[in-house]
Design a protein that fits this description.
It is built from seven helices and two strands, in the order αααββαααα. By secondary structure, the protein is of the alpha+beta class. The longest helix is centred in the middle third of the chain and has 14 residues. It has a two-stranded antiparallel ribbon. The two termini are about 25 Å apart.
Length: about 120
């Protein structure tokens, strides 16, 4: 959990709804494929994400967050809030942070619910 890439992969799964290996590769941070592969394996081994075959195309793999991973939503939201405070020129997450400040329980419940609906 302590490295930059692991948190970015989790951010992409939880908030950007990325599910496929290639989707992670096109993130603006430009993660290398070998690093991405390693982080996905570590997250799966830690039971934070699931790795399954796509039911619509068995040659593709889908990644989804587990219940353990869903429990990280408040922590990641706090990290986004902290980052926005010190990186003011990046307003990409301002609306999300505003909703979190307004009512954290409702936002967390909405995010959890939307991820459970799309779960494998």
């Amino acid at each position: 959990m302590g490295d930059k890439w692991t948190l970015l992969v989790l951010r992409d799964i939880i908030f950007m709804r990325k599910r496929y290996f290639r989707e992670f590769l096109v993130s603006s941070e430009k993660i290398a494929s070998n690093i991405l592969s390693d982080r996905l394996k570590k997250l799966e081994a830690a039971d934070i994400i699931l790795r399954r075959q796509d039911p619509h195309n068995e040659r593709r793999i889908i990644y989804a967050v587990t219940e353990k991973g869903l429990d990280l939503i408040p922590t990641i939201l706090e990290l986004l809030r902290w980052g926005a405070k010190y990186e003011v020129e990046n307003s990409k997450h301002d609306e999300l942070i505003r909703q979190f400040d307004l009512n954290p329980q409702i936002l967390i419940a909405e995010i959890r619910s939307s991820l459970l609906i799309g779960r494998i």
